[in-house]
Amino acid sequence: MPLNPQITNLVIILGMMQVSKKIPFEDPQVLMAVRALYIVSNLIIVALNLYMTRVINTKKDMTTLKYVEPAPMGSSEEPKLITTTVHSYDLQQLRSGWKGLLMGVGMMGVMHMYMKYTNPLLIQSIIPLKGAFESNLVKVHLFGQPAIGDLKRPWKAAGGMMGMGGGGELKADKKSIEEAEKAGRGGVKEE
Predict the structure, then answer these.
(1) pLDDT digits (tens, 9 = 90+) for 86-105
(2) How far is Cα 98 from Cα 96, in angstroms, rounded to an integer?
(3) 64-69 and 80-85 as β-strands: parallel, antiparallel, unpaired?
(4) Would you say the C-alpha torsion 43, 165, 67, 151 has a positive or negative sign?
């Protein structure tokens, strides 16, 4: 049984924190090497995302995908029926990956350039790269795993810290979709 990605991330973070204590970041050459490692890891993620965009657009799977999106946590809104295509869904997932990458680079830029923290550079050279290769898009489109079981769309949102994230689970079962259609919640096809 493979380990939970959150557990392996925690192990990597704790291990790299210990390793980073031993690295002489005061040495300009060491600091430049760690910066280069961070930049190269992000360039690999950018290249992976660009390749994934090309693969998704080449496949252009127009199979209809229906699911019920839960209401935002704390709101009184009803869950909304989403009707889209596999192609659009995959591109939407890829866009959220781009946003995550840019947020991470922005936060790291502030932490490193403004606050002068160097230790997170090492950790952030590994964790986002690991996350990119563990993403469902990469598993399906790059590694060619069939979209069944956990890889069946819509994908479960990765929980936040300790699995406490999001406003609920996406539902793609027939009963939930029929209930949402009868209630008239959404159903407009997204392009």
Answers:
(1) 999 999 999 999 999 999 99
(2) 5
(3) antiparallel
(4) positive
- Give the residues across from 80 on adjacent strands: 69
Tokens of 83: 């009707």
- On the 0-12 / 13-18 / 19+ scale of CB atoms within 10 A, 26 is exposed
Place of tokens 């479960």: 156
Q: Which long-range contacts (CB under 8 A, 24 or more apart) does 92-101 make?
A: 93/135, 93/136, 93/137, 93/155, 94/49, 94/52, 94/53, 94/56, 94/137, 97/49, 97/132, 97/135, 97/137, 98/49, 100/128, 101/42, 101/45, 101/46, 101/49, 101/128
% of the chain with per-residue pLDDT over 70: 84
- How long, in residues, is the chain? 191
